[in-house]
Amino acid sequence: MLRIVLVGIEGPVNLGVIARTCVNFNVDELYIVKPIASIEEALNYAARGRDFLLKARVTDSLEEAIKGVDLVVATSDEGYSAGDMLRQAVDLNGFAEKIFPRTRSVAILFGRESTGLTREEISKADVLVTIPANPSYPALNISQAVAIVLWELWKQRSITATNIPPLASKETLRQLLDLTVEISKLVMTTEDKITRSRILWRRILGKALLTEKEAALLRYWLQRVRRHISSDKT
Description:
- It contains ten helices and seven strands.
- The chain has 234 residues and is of the alpha/beta class.
- The protein has two domains: 2-154, Alpha/beta knot (3-Layer(aba) Sandwich), CATH 3.40.1280.10; 170-233.
- Strands 3-2-1-6-4-7-5 form a seven-stranded parallel sheet.
- The longest helix has 22 residues, at 212-233.
- It is elongated.
- Belongs to the class IV-like SAM-binding methyltransferase superfamily. RNA methyltransferase TrmH family.
- Residues 2-151 form the tRNA/rRNA methyltransferase SpoU type domain.
- Pfam families: SpoU_methylase (PF00588).
- One of its GO terms (biological process) is tRNA nucleoside ribose methylation.
C-alpha cells in the first residue's frame, strides 16, 4: 500500500498535477495536511485524477496522515550534512530497490513548495530520501519530485503497464538469427565471414529491443531476401 502525504502544499496547479500523477502510477491513498492550495481550484489541473483528488483525506496533523503505515519516508533536497543526523539520506534509487520492496505499507511525505518539510516533520519519518541532482541547484518542483519518486517505485511494484508493446520472445529472436545465418551462407564465401556475421546479427538483435510486431515484419523481410537470393542462384 502506497500513500502520498502532502504537507502544507501551496499551489493548486501542483496539487492538481500531483493527483493526476498519483493515478498514473497507481497510488493507493492521498493525504493532504493543512493545505494552503484550494482543492476546488486544483481540480481544474487534475485531468483524470479529479476523482482521486476528491477522495483525498485532508487532515490538520501529520500524525493522523502517517497513522497505520509500516514505514514513513520523508523527502528533501537537503539529503546530507556531515554533522546533522536528520540529513543522512538514502538516495532514491537505493530506497526503491532495497527498502521499498520489503515494506507492506509506505507513506511518503512531501513538503511545502517554499520551505519543504520542517525538521520536526522530518524527525517523524523512519527514512529520509533524496533525489540526486545538480549540487548547485538540487531543489525540484514538488510535482516533478513526486513524479520521479513514483516512477522509481512503479518499477518495483510489479504492475504490468498496458501502453508498452510486448517485446519479441527469445524464440522469435532465435528464428531471426537463424534466418540471417541462412542468408549469410548464400552470399558469403568463407566460414569465418559467416561466423562473424552471425555474431554481428546476434549483437544487433540483442540490443534492438524489438517488439513482437517489429520482429514479425523483420522476419517477413528476411524470408523475402532469402527467397530472392535463392532464386537468383538457381
